[in-house]
Amino acid sequence: MVGLIATAISVIGNIELSLNRIWGVQKTRSLGRKFSDYLSVLLTFPILMVAALGLISSIQSGTLVRSILQIPGMSYLLLLLAILGPYFLIWIGLTFLYSYLPNTTVPLRSAFFGGVIAGTLWQFTQWAYIHFQVGVAKYNAIYGAFAQLPIFLVWLYLSWIVVLLGAVITFAHQNIKTYRKEVLGEAVHHAFREELSLKLLLLIGKSFYSEGEAWTAEALSHKLDVPIRLLNET
Q1: What is the per-residue pLDDT across 120-130, written as a single tens digit (0 to 9) for each?
Q2: Per residue in 173-193, pLDDT tens?
Q3: Distances (CA, A) of 158 to 23, 43, 67, 98, 128
Q4: 90 and which of 69, 80, 119, 145 could share a cystine (Cβ 3.0–4.6 Å)?
Q5: How many CA atoms lie within 13 A of 171 on its CB side?
Q6: Using CA atoms, how far apart are residues 227 and 212, in angstroms rounded to an integer?
Q7: Residues ≥6 apart with Cβ < 8 Å to 222
Q8: CA 179 from chain center: how many Å?
Q9: Residue 194: which domain range?
Q10: Which of 150, 174, 198 is the last residue of a domain?
């Protein structure tokens, strides 16, 4: 049990590092925040994913569809909700992941935008995985069992690509006005980074001594005309 919890925490930690790298965040959570935040992710995200997978399996097996169609009156409305249910659960789960796990502020609308796109793509990979798995099993009962593991690994790989793609889309939506500059920001030399650091210190220092409004990363990005990811890395 302890090993399972440690593995889950390690996986979530690696996901956080990947998301922080997309946002250009260098600082990770403190140990206390990791415990509380990772526990929230462990209690929320897997439940939504398992519920979505259960609905998908029930719909594709026909069991849930037959049960709903026997309900008089609102059977077709309930059937529509059952079909769309997995999408909503995946969208909510990924929105929660993108808005909560990166160690920076992510607007809910941007997280939802990325979550909807990534969740829809993930549903297509899930549909393809189930059909390939069933098709291989029907094709050959002996060799089909051996083929299920490679198919599962391919699906797992594609699933994580979709999740990371959704994170990139979330970041792009959040910083849509400066996203074109992100590519240029990757090629800046060390002297420019030092100059940028001094400009940041000057602006923040002036605001502090004049008791003005605190600068946000977005405001600094517009003021200095630099990508927000470069600011986070400075």
Answers
A1: 999 888 888 87
A2: 888 877 666 655 555 666 666
A3: 21, 24, 33, 18, 11
A4: 119
A5: 25
A6: 24
A7: 177, 178
A8: 18
A9: 181-233
A10: 174
